[in-house]
Design goal:
The complex is a heterodimer of chains A (302) and B (403). Chain A is of the alpha/beta class. Chain A has nine helices and seven strands, in the order ααββαβααβαβαβαβα. Chain B is α/β, with parallel strands linked by helices and 403 residues long. In chain B, the strands form four sheets. Chain B has a seven-stranded mixed β-sheet with strand order 4-3-5-6-8-7-14, with helices on both faces. Chain B has a five-stranded mixed β-sheet with strand order 11-13-12-15-16, with helices on both faces. Chain B has a two-stranded parallel ribbon with strand order 1-10. The chains are: A alpha/beta (302), B alpha/beta (403). The structure holds thiamine diphosphate (TPP), iron/sulfur cluster (SF4) and magnesium ion. Thiamine diphosphate binds next to helix 4 of chain A.
């Protein structure tokens, strides 16, 4: 589709809020080539946010929303946490209901959309914090994967419960001293990417959000694979600069430091065999499209 | 999308005809059938045009939930699966309803309590999910026996709560329930409760509507909130996420949202009165003694009243059908002449008596009891004994029975 569904009746255009007018005029709904490079050139699907200044979650949100392959047919599911402060500003339908139940909501949602719109693309994308994904919601995270529910789960891993003031979480590093871990966390960071693979995810990536082109690639892969094959999981490091004592300018460096080859957010990827085939098909199609475009361009200039 | 031609008269993929619900329920020919309560649930859902049913085993609703799986296998339901816990199931139901599906589920006792955080969320999100609650004990030590204590928790969630007495109520109210809760000025979930085992596991004659008629499909765009399917503009619903704000606008928003949910419960009143033929049923309300009851306690009271009649004692009856909306006006009117109001209940807390007491003038007239709980049956004799006690008639000691 295109922007058909958000079009404003001409007579009412001028009384609509300016950001909505802007969305209709300049957003990239329906543009198959949309991606992170649109940031700054087109209307973004996030209006503003009330996160701490410089919070890497805000970068992550912008890159992800710019990279959704079909925002016009995507419904997002959030959870309670710092991310829930952002979703009210996001211009794709999104659901907040409770803390930790995001993968259960998404399971019901995806099935309802499949019943109501058979044969049509309706992508479901979960985006939640590490507390929501790994602690309080772990059973629902895993069970959705066991059942092979066809949606993408994204975890904003900031290695603690940020929204409630920096308590220990399952994805926190061992030894880290935090609220509710007064003598340091006594057990290892939960290895959810490996658990995801063993639980049936077809595409698993562990990385930071320091590079927008990388975020675009993994988001597109994860959503295409979830749409056609089965569950996918992305664990993205979005450090909570407030709780680890960094300034607002230091988030990017923190991510760069933690993605070095020996560090815990060094790029790691798992792709199942059927997912590899799908990605190869998509790459071949993309190559064809580019060749075609080149030909046409040559034809025009000739 | 909204504005599409009416589906009435068209056939679904099973060959059932989408029928005007009022005609289907009130005018179409009925066939008497001998069924368990669980089978009755299945037959109602066969005719309910449900999109999604999500199941989890717990006695005494497991059989009904499994029978609906058979309906799915036969093609009567869009999707069906077993969730991993009642908490997850109720969130999965919410997800499906957010996505515009007509949703059905069933639970009981500990399942209701496990899932509790979801229910005010369902009401606040205005999701017209229907949940059958086949009430069962929630106490420790573990009990699987009938006990209606869980209803008292459901009554404060903002859901509609109805309490069926018989399998016939159950059959009709499942279908009528969707009609009430999906009204745009209501759009709330319904907890349709019955007393486990007494209704689910006993066989009864039930008059069924024709099997080739079904409810029209749910229209998710007749709703006070947008359906989360990206078929309507992704409006920014709030300027700020007011959850975290500590200011007057935030408080006022939350307060008015809650008030609106309860106002919607009130607005369901007129629809429920029409579909259920009143929120209460009454018999002989000009007598000195009245029994006010809901669920299976109504059936037991009927027997007690017949026994007393044989002894020349006249007792009236009020059957409370809906607990939310609460039929306060109706109960005040029906109990106006009564000197004594007996409220028998299948739970230890006596929540129905508390509600009645809070509703009527001169509430010392209310006698909370008899109460049975933990799975005990309620012999009509103990209701009759209560009546005699309040009338000052010496009743034979029940404790000595069989001794
Ligand atoms: C049932 C329930 N338990 C606890 C909370 C309190 N709570 C709100 S957000 C949160 C922490 C969120 O942590 P995480 O998922 O890691 O997200 P972050 O804020 O770090 O982005 C907690 C514990 C709640 N809202 N609901
Ligand atoms: S508390 Fe941490 S995670 Fe939350 S907005 Fe601030 S920096 Fe970001
Ligand atoms: Mg966190």
């Amino acid at each position: 589709m295109s922007k058909e569904r958000i079009k404003i009746a001409e007579e009412l255009f001028d009384i609509m809020p300016p950001e909505y007018q802007d969305l209709v005029k300049r957003a990239t709904f329906g543009n198959e080539q949309r991606g992170w490079k649109d940031i700054g050139n087109a209307k973004e699907l996030i209006e503003e946010h009330s996160l701490c200044a410089g919070c890497p979650e805000s970068m992550a949100f912008r890159y992800i929303l710019a990279s959704l392959p079909n925002p016009e047919d995507t419904v997002m599911v959030g959870s309670t946490g710092c991310t829930s402060l952002v979703f009210p500003h996001v211009a794709v339908h999104n659901i907040h209901s409770l803390f930790g139940n995001q993968n259960a909501i998404a399971s019901g949602l995806k099935r309802a959309l499949s019943v109501r719109f058979p044969g049509q693309v309706k992508d479901v994308v979960v985006l939640a914090g590490d507390g929501a994904t790994v602690d309080i919601g772990l059973d629902m995270t895993l069970q959705a994967w066991f059942r092979q529910e066809k949606f993408t789960t994204i975890c904003f891993d900031n290695e603690l419960y940020a929204n409630t003031g920096g308590q220990e979480s399952g994805l926190m590093q061992k030894g880290f001293v935090a609220k509710m871990a007064p003598v340091g966390k006594t057990f290892e960071k939960v290895r959810l990417p490996e658990i995801a693979r063993e639980s049936g995810c077809h595409y698993v990536v562990n990385c930071t959000v320091s590079k927008p082109n990388l975020v675009e690639k993994v988001i597109k892969n994860a959503i295409h694979i979830a749409r056609e094959i089965g569950p996918t999981y992305l664990q993205l490091y979005t450090p909570c600069i407030l709780e680890i004592g960094k300034n607002s300018m230091e988030g990017l460096q923190e991510m760069r430091d933690s993605e070095k080859p020996t560090e815990r957010f060094a790029y790691k990827e798992y792709v199942s065999e059927p997912a590899k085939e799908l990605l190869a098909e998509l790459a071949a199609k993309e190559k064809e499209r580019k060749a075609e475009a080149k030909k046409q361009l040559a034809g025009q200039t000739a | 999308m909204a504005g599409q031609p009416s589906p009435i008269g068209q056939k679904n993929k099973k060959g059932q005809v989408y029928t005007d619900p009022w005609k289907m329920m009130n005018e179409a020919e009925r066939t008497p059938s001998f069924f368990t309560g669980s089978e009755v649930i299945k037959e109602a859902i066969r005719r309910a045009s449900c999109d999604v049913m999500i199941a989890y085993p717990i006695t005494p609703q497991s059989e009904a939930a499994a029978l609906i799986g058979e309906l799915f296998a036969e093609g009567y339901i869009g999707d069906y699966f077993r969730g991993e816990s009642e908490f997850a199931v109720m969130s999965q139901c919410a997800g499906a309803a957010f996505g515009g599906a007509r949703v059905f589920t069933t639970t009981a006792g500990p399942g209701t309590m496990r899932a509790m955080e979801n229910f005010p969320m369902w009401a606040g999100a205005r999701l017209p999910i229907q949940m059958i609650v086949t009430c069962r004990g929630i106490n420790s030590p573990l009990s699987i026996q009938p006990d209606t204590l869980e209803i008292s928790y459901l009554m404060q969630t903002g859901m509609l709560v109805w309490h069926a007495e018989t399998a016939q109520d159950f059959y009709d109210w499942i279908l009528k329930g969707y009609m009430v809760s999906e009204e745009p000025d209501v759009h709330l979930p319904l907890a349709l409760c019955c007393d486990g085992f007494f209704v689910t596991h006993t066989k009864d004659m039930v008059d069924l509507t024709p099997v080739d008629m079904c409810l029209p499909p749910y229209d998710p765009y007749r709703s006070p909130v947008p359906c989360m399917d990206m078929e309507c503009p992704p409006v920014r619903m709030m300027r700020d996420p007011f959850v975290m704000k500590s200011n007057y606008i935030s408080y006022a928003t939350h307060a008015s949202w809650q008030q609106e949910v309860w106002a919607a419960v009130e607005r369901s009143r007129k629809h429920a009165i029409r579909w259920l033929d009143g929120l209460i049923d009454t018999e002989n309300t000009d007598t000195d003694v009245l029994v006010v009851a809901s669920g299976t306690a109504v059936s037991q009271s009927r027997e007690a009243i017949a026994m007393l009649e044989d002894e020349g004692i006249q007792v009236g009856l009020v059957k409370v059908k809906t607990l939310r909306p609460w039929p306060g006006e109706e109960i005040r009117e029906a109990t106006k002449h009564a000197k004594h109001i007996i409220v028998p209940e299948f739970n230890v807390a006596g929540w129905l008596a508390r509600e009645v007491k809070a509703t009527i003038p001169n509430n010392e007239r209310v006698h909370a009891g008899p109460h049975v709980c933990g799975g005990m049956t309620m012999p009509p004799e103990i209701i009759a004994a209560e009546v005699k006690t309040v009338l000052g008639i010496k009743a034979p000691s029940l404790a000595g029975r069989g001794g």
